[in-house]
Amino acid sequence: MREYSYKSYKYNSFFEHYFKHSSSNPVGNVPEKILTEYKPLLPSYVNTILNFGCANGRDFIPFQNDFNCIGFDLAPTGYIDWVCKTDNLIYYQCSIEDYLNNFKDDDLSNYLVYTQGTLMYLTPENQNKFIKHLLDRNCKNIILHEYPPTYSGPHPKFTPEKKYLDMFEQVSYRKNLTGFVFLDK
């Protein structure tokens, strides 16, 4: 595994259970169902999974044998108890905001970009900037697993502009979270 750190980020200790693995950990090693459901629907040219909010790597498990895996999260390199294979994994300790400012030349045409409850922590302006960034880099396969604009619970919501919301199919495989799916057909 290759690991890179842009800087040391402060994050709430509540999130530590997403990076550590134990039998009592509620995050565990089971990928989100939306990924196992949509993996067979990915175009054959997709060869890389780019995961924002990769935590302990559980959402790489369906892809770890057949795809290159790239993860972004805030935990320090070497801190995470990985539950996925790491021989084809690149991990960046990097916020989405820093990603937007430092990864400007990437061609994402062969990628599936996936988020797991991370865009809700961005301002609506940065949510829009993130989606535009992906589209401007030819990304045609996106699954955003976030709390929708209609969510009324304690978590922040995913609230980009209507033009971006309208481009996604919305599906639910888990209570309160919505999958915003945009796949090349």
Main β-sheet description: 8 strands, mixed
In the CATH classification, which architecture applies? 3-Layer(aba) Sandwich
Q: SSE order in H/E notation?
A: EHEEEHEHEHEE
| First and last CA, distance | 32 Å
Helix/strand/pairing category: alpha/beta
**What is the overall silhouette?**
globular
Average predicted local confidence, pLDDT: 93
CATH homologous superfamily title: Vaccinia Virus protein VP39
General description of the model:
By secondary structure, the chain is of the alpha/beta class. The chain has one domain: 3-Layer(aba) Sandwich (Rossmann fold), CATH 3.40.50. The chain is 16% helix and 23% strand. An eight-stranded mixed sheet has the order 1-4-3-2-5-6-8-7. The protein is globular.
